[in-house]
Amino acid sequence: MLELDSLPALDRPVLLAAFEGWNDAGEAASSVITHLAESWGARQIAEIDPEDYYDFQVTRPRVERDDEGRKIIWPTTRISVARLDSGRDVVLLHGIEPNMRWRGFCRELTDYLARLGVRSAVLLGALLADAPHTRPVPVSGSGGGSAFGDDPTLEPSSYEGPTGILGVLQDRLEAGGVETVALWAQVPHYVSSPPNPKATLALLRRVEDLLDLAVPLGELPEQSRAWEEGVNELAEQDSEVADYVRTLEEAKDATELPEATGESIAREFERYLRRRGMEPPV
């Protein structure tokens, strides 16, 4: 681990992590970390030395230029810290799925996170699914622990099959006693090109609920509406795509309860109050 700053003393730090690549359909999950780092003014404190974990012929470095001239940006995983107004610290991990030595990679990460005092973590992912773009983005949650309260939406994961670096890191964190939740947004497979601000917004709102804190949304709500309108226009130009979207909508509406339940309305009201510095009623 390359430490870029002295190891800070953190207050009840919680980890928010996402990796570009297989775990990040539409770049919805990694965009959460980018958005929060900018909104909270996070400062980078460390990064993984990429030499042992990345195949640079597969994940190539980039050339960039700034006022100081030309520089090489290496693919790697970076760790930043943001201190919230409440005094609590959030550790933000923005990674690129490594090409090799995943166990050593996760061991190096978790050892460093333990030095920071991280005892709870939220891992963010996004996957391609048969989800219509016109409906609320489904976000599933698994894991839990006392750090996340009694959240009835969190269930033990029943998934079996191939996994990415997010699943391996979750296993390593839990083995080290870190309470961990994994949130996965479903991105429509027929419109998978990044960015997907609607899925990013859905993940942010689940983070807000899970951690009971006000998350700055910035222009994401407007970008989400513009994205959906843009996809609507594209679908209208192709009758086959329009028919397919209607089929997905009918299937979705037939199998799920309406969103406007008393519980969902209450959550939206609590978000509204928190963003304005007001306490929700008890």
Main pleated-sheet profile:
9 strands, mixed
Low-confidence stretches at least 5 residues in length (pLDDT < 50)? none
CATH 4th-level superfamily: PAC-like subunit
Shape: globular
Provide the CATH top-level class.
Alpha Beta
The third-level CATH topology is Rossmann fold
Number of strands: 11
Structural class: alpha/beta
Work out the strand percent.
15-25%
Question: What spatial order of strands do you see in the largest sheet?
Answer: 1-3-6-7-2-8-11-9-10
What's the Cα radius of gyration?
19 Å
Helicity, as a percent range: 25-40%
Task: Give the domain tally.
Answer: 1
The end-to-end distance, rounded to whole angstroms, is 44 Å
Tally of individual helices: 7
* Order of H and E elements: EEHEEEEEHEEEHEHHHH
Summarize the structure in words.
The protein is α/β, with parallel strands linked by helices. It has a single domain, classed as Rossmann fold (3-Layer(aba) Sandwich), CATH 3.40.50. It has helices at 28-40, 102-116, 165-175, 197-211, 220-236, 239-255, 262-275, and strands spanning 2-3, 14-20, 43-47, 62-66, 69-73, 78-83, 89-96, 120-129, 139-143, 154-155, 179-188. The strands form 2 sheets. Strands 1-3-6-7-2-8-11-9-10 form a 9-stranded mixed sheet, with helices on both faces. The chain has a two-stranded antiparallel sheet with strand order 4-5. Helix 1 (28-40) packs across helix 4 and helix 4 (197-211) runs antiparallel to helix 5 (220-236). The radius of gyration is 19 Å and the shape is globular. The model has no long low-confidence stretch (mean pLDDT 88).
